[in-house]
Amino acid sequence: MKIVLASNNQGKLAELQAMFAPLQMTLVRQSELGIGEAPEPYRTFVENALTKARHASAASGLPALADDAGLCVDAFGGMPGVDTAYYATQFGYEKSDANNVRALLEQMRNVDQRRAALVSTLVALRSADDPEPLIAVGRAVGEIVREPRGENGFGFDPVMFIPKFGKTFAELPSEVKNAHSHRGQAAQAMVALMRERWL
């Protein structure tokens, strides 16, 4: 089965393709089909993911999978949340993973309460009008370290320390990270939902 991934993020595609491999599903980035990004006007991950999935499915005629994910920092009342991708732009930096990490570390320089969660909400639709979207949420709780560590992963992986492993996500081998990350947890739940309801 071919599914359009409502994202242009190469890192997300690689992670999700590996996680959905057991279902013999091929994920195709929407940009490869000439589909632009959907607006994300909502303040929750689930509403934005649903909007992105409906947009990609309507434009492609294919089933769609969308992920809306972000970093929720306790000391910031859960922010940056749905604004995670553009976090650095609030502080005058260009949009990039490296600048997001830089801005976060600058904002947390004098903050001792460093607990945070990476959250991923996956939504899958059989068609743009599917009245019963599949929704799966994953949450990885850790602490923001004071400087980046590790070379694997993307986004906030180099600063997200997971106490259970004593390492940041970027210091873990891909297969360990994928099994325990927010996106990994959401993907495992989504694979189970698809097996139960779609296959």
Automatic annotation (TrEMBL):
Pfam family, one: Ham1p_like
Catalysed reactions, semicolon-separated: ITP + H2O = IMP + diphosphate + H(+); XTP + H2O = XMP + diphosphate + H(+); dITP + H2O = dIMP + diphosphate + H(+)
Protein EC: 3.6.1.66
Iron-sulfur among keywords: no
Active site: 68 (proton acceptor)
Cofactor note: Binds 1 Mg(2+) ion per subunit.
Source taxon at top rank: Bacteria
InterPro entries: dITP/XTP_pyrophosphatase, ITPase-like_fam, RdgB/HAM1
A molecular function (GO) term: ITP diphosphatase activity
Residues given in the record as substrate binding sites: 7-12, 69, 154-157, 177, 182-183
Alphabetical keyword list: Hydrolase, Magnesium, Metal-binding, Nucleotide metabolism, Nucleotide-binding
Binding positions for Mg(2+) per the UniProt entry: 68
Coiled-coil regions listed: none
CC cofactor: Mg(2+)
Subunit description: Homodimer.
Primary role: Pyrophosphatase that catalyzes the hydrolysis of nucleoside triphosphates to their monophosphate derivatives, with a high preference for the non-canonical purine nucleotides XTP (xanthosine triphosphate), dITP (deoxyinosine triphosphate) and ITP. Seems to function as a house-cleaning enzyme that removes non-canonical purine nucleotides from the nucleotide pool, thus preventing their incorporation into DNA/RNA and avoiding chromosomal lesions.
Protein family according to the UniProt entry: Belongs to the HAM1 NTPase family.
PANTHER family, A to Z: INOSINE TRIPHOSPHATE PYROPHOSPHATASE, INOSINE TRIPHOSPHATE PYROPHOSPHATASE/HAM1 PROTEIN
Name recorded for this polypeptide: dITP/XTP pyrophosphatase
Source organism per UniProt: Ottowia thiooxydans
